UniProtKB/TrEMBL annotation:
InterPro entries per record: Fungal_SecMetab_SDRs (IPR051468), NAD(P)-bd_dom_sf (IPR036291), SDR_fam (IPR002347)
Gene Ontology CC annotation, any one: cytoplasm
The protein's name in its UniProt record: Uncharacterized protein
Family: Belongs to the short-chain dehydrogenases/reductases (SDR) family.
Pfam families: adh_short
GO terms, molecular function: oxidoreductase activity
Amino acid sequence: MGTQFTYLVTGANRGIGQAFVEQLLSTPTARVFATARNPEASLDLKRLAEASEGCCHVLQLDISKPDSVKAAAQELAKLVPHGLDCLINNAAILGKFTHALDQDLSDFAHVLQTNVIGTYSVTRALMPLLRKGTGKRIVNISSDAGCLQQNAGFIHQDVPNDAGMAIDYRCSKAALNMMTTCLANQLAQEGFTVLSLHPGFVHSDMGRAAGLGASRSAPGSGPTLSAEDSVQAMLQVLQQVTPKDSGRYIKYNGEAMPW
Ligand SMILES: NC(=O)c1ccc[n+]([C@@H]2O[C@H](COP(=O)([O-])OP(=O)(O)OC[C@H]3O[C@@H](n4cnc5c(N)ncnc54)[C@H](OP(=O)(O)O)[C@@H]3O)[C@@H](O)[C@H]2O)c1
């Protein structure tokens, strides 16, 4: 038990989150807490946990519901009293991918509530366990959709692009990036590594929906990367980073992202 490295992955029942669980479980030292809004319906995840010989546990967690966050944190504290090494904040929603001026306000609030406040509340609830752990890692799965420099770069370029679409999702990921730097500042003296990782444009339910939305403005847009390849590359990045990298925004292949 002493040499195990413990991970918690949110939104682990499909897409990139599930690929994280699968690949972490191929590491002999990993013990993975895979969370899902509806564990009973998460059949692939249940199968992974059953085959894991005790290395994978499925927990219920809806990051947008305070009671669910509190219950998951309490359950985890019983399972890992010596602490959690790495939190992978992966769960998020895309929203409806509308034009910047057509955004429904309650949809906007829902996306921010989930992707920003939800992620923050999970991180805060798990801080006592993360502080006890030796890994001291918080990984926020961000997106290039939250990259201000990239988005602003399209303004005066006369090329088809989707930079005015999905204002809710873009704002949520830009805010998540700010959260990364706030937490990295706050936790630097405690040896934490807090990162924003951009996974690339990935074949998942979200990637396919974003591809369809983007194609309306920029024909031909679509996912280019499998979840497996994205996660394999992100895990390589995670193997290499140290607390000196805390507060960085990094692409899946290790390249630095501009803010
Ligand atoms: N795919 C891409 O091209 C791409 C690009 C850049 C960034 N990302 C980011 O990568 C991460 C994973 O995305 P993905 O492509 O794997 O998306 P996905 O296939 O749509 O999966 C999203 C996951 O988040 C979970 N989730 C949504 N709302 C939740 C909530 N309130 N509480 C708990 N879990 C919730 C979903 O659970 P349910 O099954 O219960 O809905 C699902 O497990 C996200 O942060 C996304 O923003 C993806």
